[in-house]
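Sequence in, structure out. Go.
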Amino acid sequence: MEKSEILEYMEIALAEARSCKKDVPVGAVIIQNGAVLSRAHNQKEETNDPLAHAELLAIRAAAQKLERWRLSDCIIFCTLEPCPMCAEAIIQARIKILVYGAKDLIAGAAGSAFDLFSKRKALPVPQCISGIMADECAEELKKFFREKRALEKSESN
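Output:
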């Protein structure tokens, strides 16, 4: 996959992240044979569903569209390093490649806080590519939390 394609798909994931209304702005896109198969953003707050992470929603949509759970010919692009729950879902779906932007030093499961993609697993693990548009992805998260803190501060005054 060429760098221009990688950046194009990460831009789509970033657009998904920016479309979050109340939630932490994380976006995910699943690609198959160069075409967007599914895209999603976090919706935990909107749906009151603790499992409504962008990655899980994108995986579900892709599996439904393909009418199969094995996504071994797919690539997932995420704006933030997946958490342990999403990392395991990516492994369970047999996704071939994970591409992500910003590292998550608190809950990232691709090597930052945890490493669920180590080669010692019984199941195949995806190739991981990190740091794609990391600054842009991290800035969306910083902006969200700055605004959230400012709102909480104004509400407490």
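Check: The chain has five helices and five strands. The CA atoms of residues 150 and 156 lie 10 Å apart.
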